[in-house]
Amino acid sequence: MAVHDPCALLERLLGEARESSWLEFKGNNGDPDTIGEYISALANGAMLSGRDRAFLVFGVDDAGSQPIGTTVRLGDSKKGGENLLNWLGRLLQPRLMIECLDFECEGLHFAIVVIEPSYERPVSFKGVEYVRIGENKRRLSDFPEHERAIWLATGRRRFEDAIALTGQTEHDVLLKLDARVAYTLRDRPQPRNTAEVIRSLVGDRFLNDTMDGRYDVTNLGAILLARDIREFPSIAGRSVRVVQYAGRDKRRSLSETEGRRGYAVGFAGMMRYLLERLPSEERYIDGIRRNVALYPETAVREIVANALIHQDFTVTGSGPIVEIYEDRVEVTNAGDSLIDPDRILDERRSRNEKLASAMRELGLCEERGGGLDKTFLEIEAQHLPAPEFIASENSFRVVLFGPRAFSDLSKADRLRACFYHGVLRWLTHDYMSNASLRERFSLPDKDYQAVSAVISEAIRMGRIAPADPAQGRRNARYVPYWAASG
User: Fold this and answer.
1) Element (H, E) at 281
2) Residue-wise pLDDT tens digits, 95-112
3) Is residue 38 within 8 Å of 69, Cβ to Cβ?
4) What letter would DSSP give residue 112?
5) Helix (H/G/I), strand (E/B), else coil: 138
6) Average pLDDT, integer, range 117-131
7) β-bridge mates for residue 288, sequence order
8) In the beta sheet, which residues pair with residue 396?
């Protein structure tokens, strides 16, 4: 979080209308204990305000916000013979990123303590948590509503908010991030004024303004807009790999490529590359022979987008992987699913909500919850086998299968298709029936008994249940097991 131009930072802080929960002006009071208490108060105030930094400024008249200079020398200050910064580091919990600046501006000396909140829990000094209320520094325990709000703020802080690169100039930012994409995907003209573009990136939380003429790139900005994600250490391993194999196993690969661009920058190109390599078949449509993809584009797009959004960035290793086999496509991301696969169509949870929101806003995926619904509807419309969801401790895999006749489906394939068909019907306030499942499997009426056998086995396995426990066999209707009454 290094400050590159302290005088520019001071000018920005003096431009604030007044002191606030994250900004304190002092004259010459460099008492170490007072400094420690104010660091606690300002760090907690920054969390309450959603700020990435807080500032304790020496050399400013706090009454009139006029620069007067100071005798405080943070670099030379000690407590009991110990360097001030080391002493503060021992007594502040949890550990914070703190930078102490001593500098000259227009012939006057100033000092600033720059504080970066941890967003782990409220910050204490010597075991006591402080907060700035109005113009006063108070014990946080005296204000339980503020304390609860800080704890809520710690829970909202996510990977997307962390810093990928610090201290970037406007030129650096536009060299490393493709800001044009943020406008193109929203169908908006890009301003010619660089300052306006930067302000927009700050407003989107792709950048943080360090208030000294430079900017920090957030992980959110980097993962979406990076021209080359290898330039950002925190996300360097999160590129998307696409591997195509010759058969039904990994023995021989035909091609492999790894994306280097941020997800928003490279998504369209990645999808083109992927769709060109998916298996297809020749069909005559309106008398013209055409190559028709075996997998619905919507389904592939949403499954890939979900893998990008819901990956666990705390799990080390590779980023999302798309593997194309002769008979299926597998999409794997790091981190187990937050949702039981049986409830994946009706429950709504996101591990990286800000990334999910940004990708929806940029038009890279469907609105919350709509993408998987459309995926399953497209798959049913083409009478493809139901996707399989495979969860493990450190990864989550989705398998899309190519066309298979009903007679070629395994018992597990049939039960899975039956269950998810029941879920889709339930979500539209309808019921699964023998007739609807025959349509789902593209079977004629004469195969009534074959579908009845699937339904009976699904009931026996606890996958579905009668919509009405008292119903007979004629015109029977069914729901997912978790929707059954009683």
Assistant:
1) strand 280-285
2) 888 889 999 999 999 999
3) no
4) E
5) strand
6) 88
7) 285
8) 333, 391
Who contacts 295 (Cβ-Cβ below 8 Å, separation ≥6)? 278, 279, 329, 384, 400, 402
Q: Are 116 and 52 in contact (CB under 8 A)?
A: yes
Give the lowest-confidence range in 51-55, 285-289, 314-318.
285-289
Q: What percent of the chain has pLDDT over 90?
A: 60
- Compute the distance between CA of residue 307 and CA of residue 301 in angstroms, rounded to an integer: 10
Within 13 Å, how many C-alpha atoms sit on residue 9's CB side?
Answer: 28
* Residue 317, pLDDT above cutoff 70: no
| Token pair for 353 | 């909500």
Q: Which two tokens stand for residue 134?
A: 């109005």
Q: What does the pLDDT look like over 142-172, one tens digit per residue? A: 988 888 888 877 766 678 888 888 889 999 9
- H helices then E strands: how many in the chain? 15, 25
Rg from Cα positions in the chain: 29
pLDDT mean across residues, the chain: 89
382 to each of 271, 292, 293, 385, how far by Cα in Å? Answer: 20, 12, 11, 9
Query: What is the token pair recorded at 290?
Result: 């055409």
Whether the Cβ atoms of residue 250 and residue 244 lie closer than 8 Å to each other: no
SS3 at position 88: helix
Torsion angle of the four alpha carbons 403, 409, 415, 418, in this order, in degrees rounded to the nearest 10? 40
Tokens of 463: 């996958």
The residues near 485 (Cβ < 8 Å, ≥ 6 apart) are: 469
**Which one-letter amino acid corresponds to residue 104?**
E
